[in-house]
Amino acid sequence: AGSKLREVFDKINNLLSGKSVQTEGQTVSVTQHAQGLEFVCYKLAEKFVRHGEGEVSFHHDSAFPIAVVLSGIWELHPRVGDIFLAHLHKKCPYSVPFYPARKEGTSMEEYQRVLGYEVHDSKVEEQDHFLKRMSGMIRLYAAIIQLRWPYGNKQGAHPHGLSYGWRWLAQMLNLEPLADVTAMLLLDFLEVCGNALMKQYGIQFWKTMFFIQKSYIPRIEAVTSSGQMGCLSRLKNFVQKCLRAQEIPLPKGILTPSFWRT
């Protein structure tokens, strides 16, 4: 509910503003310790990224309420946004976007970690689980860049708005595609903020969609084996449908004005 989200936002904002906040039966304030504020910024940013790789990866719609709170907090407390990006880029280098190359002397286990895989006791996580986590984080990022906290000032610019999404898309299309990962990330990104990018960039956006269809999808196909076609087929269908209709559908779960009355 919108009212519940406002409560969450106010509590986080009050904590970061140095006010006393009630939590789990005790009163806390960042002023109680010299590094209190820095610690809270760090843990909060880390938690937002965890929501992306956890909750959002399983419930796509949850990207929007989480993103709108973070967007508002980022506007008022830029330090949280900076640390959030640092956590996000470390956990999901594809959000830069960047495909890390293996450096000389790096063990395979360490390299898997750099690529974003979770490695426990030399055991690398399953590919499906890895892709799901990356998908959740990209979806959260794509939601953040288009949302603003509705009760904010609105005078200044979005601290990390759609121009960053446009840049992400352009840089992504300049990278040589990877099997599995590239198709999934592009589809997630376009499903979540394609509509917002279309409204903002118009003809330039449609030129990019045409480039994806004519030039980039064949390049993804060239590196994709027959057993990895699922996501690529969904991306193809999505781009084809959008180009035919000259319309990108609104993402599922977008927060409507009526949501804020609940």
Automatic annotation (TrEMBL):
An example Gene Ontology molecular-function term: translation initiation factor binding
Answer yes or no on keyword Phosphoprotein. Answer: no
| GO BP annotations listed | poly(A)+ mRNA export from nucleus; protein transport
Q: Which UniProt keywords apply?
A: Coiled coil, Cytoplasm, mRNA transport, Nuclear pore complex, Nucleus, Protein transport, Translocation, Transport
Sorted alphabetically, which Pfam families does this protein's record hold? GLE1
Subcellular location field = Cytoplasm; Nucleus, Nuclear pore complex
* InterPro entries named among the record's database cross-references: GLE1, GLE1-like_sf
A cellular component term, taken from the record's GO annotations: nuclear pore cytoplasmic filaments
Q: Mind telling me which PANTHER family this protein's record contains?
A: GLE-1-RELATED, MRNA EXPORT FACTOR GLE1
What is the protein named? mRNA export factor GLE1
The organism's lineage is:
Eukaryota, Metazoa, Chordata, Craniata, Vertebrata
